[in-house]
Amino acid sequence: MPKSNVPSRTVALSNFPARRRLYLAVAACSAMAFGSAAWAGPSGERITGGEASIERAGKVTTIEQASDRLAVEWDSYDLNADEVVNYNQPDAGSVALNRILSQSGSEIRGRINANGHVVLINPHGIVFGENARINVGGMLASGLDVNTDDFLNGDWALSGVNGTDGLVVNRGVINAATGGSVSLVGKQVRNEGLITAHLGAVNLAAGKGAVVTFDQSGLMGVRVSEAVVQDELGVNAALVNSGRVDAEGGRILLTASTSRDVFSRAVNRGDLEEARSVVMHEDGSFSLGTGADVSNSGTLSVSHESSAGEVVVLGENIDQKGLVEANNLNGDGGHIELHARETALVSGDGRVQARSASGGKGGQIKVLGEQVGLFDGAQVEVSGVEGGGEAFIGGDYQGKNSWLPNAHRTAVSASARIDASATATGDGGRIIVWADEATRFYGSLAGKGGSNGKGGFAEVSGKSHLAFDGSVDLSGPEGAGRLLLDPENINISQGAEDEDFDGIVDFSEPGIGGDDALAVTFESLGSILEHQQTTVELQATNTISITEGGTVQGTSGSELKLVAGKQIIVNGKSDFSNSAVTLLAGHKDCGSASCYDDGGKRSIVFGLDSGISTAGEFRAFAADSIRFSTDATLSAGTATLRSGDSINLSDFSTINTTSGNLNITAGDTSLYTGSDILT
Predict the structure, then answer these.
(1) Most buried of 8, 119, 187, 537, CB within 10 angstroms?
(2) What angle do CA 175, 170, 348 make, to 5 degrees?
(3) What is the rounded CA–CA span in Å between residue 105 and residue 88?
(4) φ and ψ at 318, to 5 degrees?
């Protein structure tokens, strides 16, 4: 039996402009890049650190590792489908570094077995073919290089080599032991096969430089220290997953952007007072830097029967068209964060799930970026059998959470859906759709309460502009939920701009960032108020305008609240059926002239021949004045009008109550302070 006679030595050790689209482009590896198919296993070995013997028996190569750390240089490292390499290592924590010095990439079609960690390094690239079967304690395969002495001393810093592709591709099956780790790191990384690490960690990282870390439990992490610039790659994403990654109960990281180590401490957990991005740190710093694009059309799963894990995807732009799941069979759902420096898209039939099937609440999902879009049939789901979870699309409540970066523009198309419902018991969850500039929402969201619960809470807003023509279900047997729409200005009209929105991916499309307020439609209000006892609150920093009349088939017990810092203007005649209607001009968060530049009145104005009718309760509160213009009408079951200064009825204007009292109070000084008078 041939045996390597290379002398060994023992070394003391110490303990990855916004892109318009992302395209899935997987190029075949050429024979020029990866050599010929006439292989005979790895060859030309030199042991440069640690102790081992290397034996060959036919098509089987066996490395008998005698030291905790081993470093071997190979002239070539290729495996045909019938070839095997076995690493027999001292224990599961042992590591074997294999630096491959070939001038071509390594193609592995056979089997690698190890009870510890195997590290494969080839700057010219590594491809695991369709027949590759890797069964190891843990694996790092990299198209970057590492210094042997640094590695032996515990410094796992990887760096790119000029003039090399640094491509790592998996088309086979890579399986780590329970609690183990698999990392693919290169200038470009593609997974088209299957990677598994039960209760472990899987890292796919694209960059010119990276640092490998280990946490207290021994799980491997990767942070990109030097990014690949997307323009260098053209339309091809640097990191592509079209296969399947399973880390049941563990964690998955896809990154093509520079950052700190996102798993170095506990973040992003539901018991925290505020949601927090993994790239926000205790000192308040934000560490998501430049990078390249990430595309997922496959499956990323950390679902588990009792303890769902965490998925983090970081990149310059993210295109999520596949399945990302952190579901739990018996407990709370897990955590998912898709965070792009520029544009984060969930599109096609893309699904992002952190559900609880039994014995827990839904998990937490964050989709963040400068521009955030849920397009086509995208689904975000944090439902739970004992209560809904949390979904943050573009930011947190009113954009005020400093731990969660806000989107500039957010868009949700007609077929997209967000669900934070309680499926059996408990309350509906929390859904935030936010942008600092403009939000267009045409999709559907649900936060239904369970059999003994209340409906959840949803906020949909752009700080400056909002177009809302979606559907909402926040119903609950024990009480309705609350929908809040709260941009700077709101127009309520028959139809919103850009109704044919589905499929648009250009965030600079005319209308989304225009000077005029975008619209909330009567149709969307009706779809919420006519079927469920839900409170819909439209809250504008400045002005709310009903620009034309409309009809809403509201049910008894539902309520529409219009809350403006400045004016509420009513034009046209609007019928809200049985819904309660409340108007408040000069609300407590904007109760002074400093909230707007012109110092105008905090008033409610019914325009010429305008009107509101409802069989329910009507309430109008204005910090300054209420005015009914000529032929304006109000008809309600009961009505209460209060103003800080005056209430004026012009010629032929009428107020009629059909089933109760009419209460009118002018000069109510308590309203000057913009006190909280809504109940």
Answers:
(1) 187
(2) 105
(3) 25
(4) -125, 130
- Name residue 622's beta-bridge partners: 585, 643
Give pLDDT tens digits for 55-73. Answer: 999 999 999 999 999 999 9
399: part of which helix (H) or strand (E)? none
One-letter amino acid at 612 equals: I
Q: How far apart are CA 445 and CA 422, in angstroms?
A: 13
The pLDDT value recorded for residue 40 is 64
Place of tokens 């610039």: 229
Measure Cα distances from 577 to 81, 121, 429, 460, 537 in Å. 72, 70, 29, 25, 17
| CA distances, 319 to each of 19, 242, 314, 578 (Å) | 10, 12, 11, 44
Q: What does each C-alpha distance from 609 to 463, 522, 570, 584 come to in angstroms? A: 32, 19, 10, 21
**Contacts for 336 with CB less than 8 Å, ≥ 6 apart:** 310, 311, 312, 324, 326, 352, 354, 363, 364, 365, 366
Distances (CA, A) of 509 to 17, 485, 504, 656: 16, 22, 8, 45
Q: How much is the average pLDDT of 558-563? A: 92
Closest Cα to residue 382, out of 312, 332, 438, 442? 332
Name the amino acid, one letter, at 14.
Answer: S
Cα–Cα separations (whole angstroms), residue 575 to 526, 612, 633, 636, 639: 11, 6, 11, 10, 15
Upper half-sphere CA count for residue 655 (Cβ side, 13 Å): 21
Q: How far apart are CA 304 and CA 326, in angstroms?
A: 8
Q: Cα(561)–Cα(173) distance, rounded to whole angstroms? A: 56
| Least confident interval from 9-13, 50-54, 149-153, 585-589 | 9-13
Q: What is the pLDDT of residues 427-465, one digit of tens each?
A: 999 999 999 999 999 999 999 999 999 999 999 999 888
CA pair distance 466, 526, nearest whole angstrom: 18
**Distance (Å, whole) CA 218 – CA 30:** 37
Q: Of 248, 285, 251, 246, give the one whose Cα is nearest residue 266.
A: 251
Judged by phi (left if over 0) then psi (alpha if -120 to 50, else beta), residue 415 lies in: alpha
Residue 348 CA: distances (Å) to CA of 23, 139, 297, 320, 469: 13, 33, 9, 8, 21
Reported residue count of the chain is 679
Note whether 86 and 55 are within 8 A (CB). Answer: no
pLDDT of residue 518: 63
Would you say 429 and 391 are in contact if contact means Cβ atoms under 8 Å apart?
yes
Q: How many CB atoms lie within 10 A of CB 451?
A: 12
